[in-house]
Design a protein that fits this description.
Helices cover 63% and strands 2% of the residues. A two-stranded parallel sheet has the order 1-2. Helix 2 (17-31) packs parallel to helix 5 (76-99), helix 8 runs antiparallel to helix 9 (161-180) and helix 8 runs parallel beside helix 10 (186-197). The protein has helices spanning 2-8, 17-31, 54-58, 60-74, 76-99, 110-113, 118-129, 139-152, 161-180, 186-197, 200-203, and strands spanning 37-38, 102-103. The protein has 210 residues and is mostly helical. This is Phosphatase PAP2 family protein. The chain crosses the membrane at residues 12-32, 52-74, 81-100, 186-205. Keywords: Membrane, Transmembrane, Transmembrane helix.
Amino acid sequence: MKTSLLRARPHLWYQLYWVLYLIWFFWLDLTVTDPKYIIHSPLDDFIPFNEWFIFPYGSWFFLLAGVTALLWWFDTASYDKLCLMMFSGMTFCLILYMVLPNGLDIRPTVEEVGRSNIAMTLMQLIWKADASVNVCPSIHCQSSACMAIAFSGSTLAKDRPWLKVLAFGWAVLICASTVFTKQHSIIDVFCGLAVAFIWVPMLYLRPRKR
């Protein structure tokens, strides 16, 4: 049964990329301690810190698991497109982090925030695990956009516009959470989206062969 399942949907091994990605990402996180380029936009100063956005920020993991599993099971062609868009974009971002080591200097301290709640506790855990480096382009935003694009273009969302709205709405909320939690600059967000949407003309807007 397992053999026949993998023959019908043979591309599950694409997920092995996550092993390479995690090793590469955390290696950079540990080695890039003094980023050469500090990312900042004046708009960042007008975006208030809100710790409660940690929940939509963390929902990225559920979106990733859900969309990947659904597309792998129900629409292999869309799953392949997702893997191509997302993994190639992640690789590009990691290479860029190596060539142009960058970081942020906008995270507030706990004392500056002056609040104590479950959201702040989670924020502190995130800040300890994820240094304020390797931020532009934002992989969080790039991958969220890829998942929304792939899902909305799949057979699962065909003739179901509300599912497309849900997918993009969720991705937008995650992108917004990255700036409200001060995990990213608005510049990181737009650069991450650009890395994702560059695939749209090639994968989804090509003229169909007659």
